[in-house]
Amino acid sequence: MADWPDLAAVEALVALADHGSLAAAARATGMAQPNVSRSIARLERRFGLPLIHRSTTGATLTAQGLVVVEWSRELLAAARRLADGVEALGEGPSTLTLAASHTVAENLVPGWVADLRRRRADLRIRTEVCNSTEVIGQLMRGQCDVGFIEGPDAPGGLNHRVVGEDELLLVAPPGHPLTRRRRPLPLTALADWPLVTREAGSGTRVALDHALRSRGLPPIEPVQEAGSNATVRVAVASGAGLAVLSRLAVAAMIDAGTLVAVPMDLRLHRSLRAVWAGPAQPSGPVGELIMIASGRDRRTR
């Protein structure tokens, strides 16, 4: 039988990456600080890799640790999907199925769902994570009740409501020549550098292509395409190239100093939208979730 890593230890490692210190990771996970340190040490022995640098001033991730953290995010997301799926197999009074783009699902949906569950404790909620184009397809086929997408354009044939705004940032690894640039990088110069992108159909890729077209520029041929924000972040941190990603997706790594934002001469904004089929004014759990999404975004901006 496979010797799987302990999920609590994996969660502790991710919390250290997100919050910057063992003490903060302990608060985020509800563990005692010595237990956080011991959990990460067990992971290091399990993997045979140094995951953090320990010093008198604190703990920081090693290069190997940065990569493991991104894979760990995917593992924890899969574990959550497993738990939700098993729960959904049981009988219950009602089920809400939502589909969300990666950026929205990773950064906003968990908080929205927690708020909805506080109001409707008996509601079963299933989350599907895919890109914005696939979210629309699921709605059209009747496979979900509500979707959340990002992008510059509203979808045709569906009801939609803007629930927030997002900004795309150009990011580079520390030490990249562009991080020392004093003036914003012209969008026309972006094609001069290797670029790692999300896959075609993702809201992030659509927004970037839309911005290029607005300047009369063709789409950029990426050196690497990836199906998740996590994979793009790891590629950039490892030196594969630059990337344009949501501020939501890169804020923690920018704060930690593992990615650096490079100013551009065009600010890339896009709308976050709830989309649904059926009545123009949604009711029940769908309507409540959309109202939570709209209100939560205003409180956090």
UniProtKB/TrEMBL annotation:
Family, similarity comment: Belongs to the LysR transcriptional regulatory family.
A Pfam family annotated for this UniProt entry: HTH_1
Keyword Ribosomal protein found: no
Domain named HTH lysR-type: residues: 5-62
GO molecular function: DNA-binding transcription factor activity; transcription cis-regulatory region binding
Name of this protein: Transcriptional regulator, LysR family
UniProt entry tagged with the keyword Acetylation: no
UniProt xrefs under SUPFAM superfamilies: Periplasmic binding protein-like II, Winged helix' DNA-binding domain
Upper lineage: Bacteria, Bacillati, Actinomycetota, Actinomycetes, Nakamurellales
Keywords on record: DNA-binding, Transcription, Transcription regulation
